[in-house]
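dude i think i finally got it to work??
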Amino acid sequence: MGTRTVDETEAGAGTERDATAVEAAESDDVTEAEPNAEQDGSEAGEEAEGEGPSGVGQGAAAVVSVALGLVSLTGSWPGTVAAARETLLGQLETAADAGVATQVKEVYGDAWNTTALWGGLFALTALIVGAVVLARPAFGTPGRTLRAPWIASVAWAGVSLGVIGLLLAVLKYTGVLLGLPATG
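look at this
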């Protein structure tokens, strides 16, 4: 039981030789793979450096800026609801025997100003979001100021629409543009 036979000894020696051959083959594979690993590593390193921020957030913010600018020019649901509320309050607060000028101001004037205020809020928000997108590269990673050219173009469009919307809101609120009709 405690003795080895010739077959077992040869099998044990064969196992040792096979293990040595496997180790040698693995070390050859490793030395051959190292140059490729360095090349692959450098390519992966270049990809990792280029994978940084993709600008998706900046692009989305630029598009949001344009959308807010358009909403400031065309009107918004909150502005419409607030104007309808002001119209209702004006009707409730105005006495039946009030003059025409008072009725027009209370029923329509406050609603008009409320619409202008909401348009101005959307325009100001569009202006701020667009300006932040344009200024973002100045506060980013040094040496990494590359971004897709369309992002800056869309952000400038959002800023422009915000300025136009803000100007129109101020003119509408002050009565310079489409003021209430003169009564009496």
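Residues 56-174 form one domain.
im so relieved honestly
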